[in-house]
Design a protein that fits this description.
Helices cover 28% and strands 28% of the residues. By secondary structure, the protein is α+β, with helices and mostly antiparallel strands. It has a single domain, classed as Alpha-Beta Plaits (2-Layer Sandwich). The strands form two sheets. Strands 2-5-1-6 form a four-stranded antiparallel beta sheet, covered by helices on one side. The chain has a two-stranded antiparallel sheet with strand order 3-4.
């Protein structure tokens, strides 16, 4: 199985009424429920909390430097996302298509690289 990120940019979404947002949330949650039933859903989030502190971090030698810029803050772009674990790109496209139709918003699909043997978590039968 391969993990995929399905996400959308909130700048692609035109203004909606509260009722329209509730309807889209309901439609997308139905797709997420189908993902769970199919056993492919790993994690998801409806977006970033716009009131939360978002910053950029750079290194100045051995210490981090936190600033509000110059990078665009994620809350301005990441509208929502989910991570799924499926057999192949075709399956990832299927679920992204379901979300695109449910929301009527474009979706992007990214494949996570396969973990190397030293990156995979130990099972309960393996020593760490």
């Amino acid at each position: 199985m391969t993990d995929y990120l399905i996400s959308f940019n909130d700048e692609w979404v035109p203004a909606h009424t509260a009722a329209e947002i509730r309807a889209k949330a309901s439609a997308s949650m139905a797709v997420v429920e189908d993902m769970k039933q199919a056993g492919v859903f790993v994690f998801g989030n409806g977006g970033i909390d716009a009131s939360s502190l978002v910053c950029s971090v750079t290194a100045d030698g051995d210490r981090p430097v936190f600033t509000d810029g110059p990078y665009v803050e994620s809350k301005e772009h990441l509208g929502g996302f989910c991570v799924i674990s499926v057999e192949d790109d075709e399956a990832a496209r299927h679920w992204a298509g379901r979300l695109a139709v449910a929301l009527d918003w474009p979706q992007e699909v990214y494949r996570f690289p396969a973990p190397t043997p030293d990156q995979r978590p130990a099972t309960e039968h393996e020593e760490i």
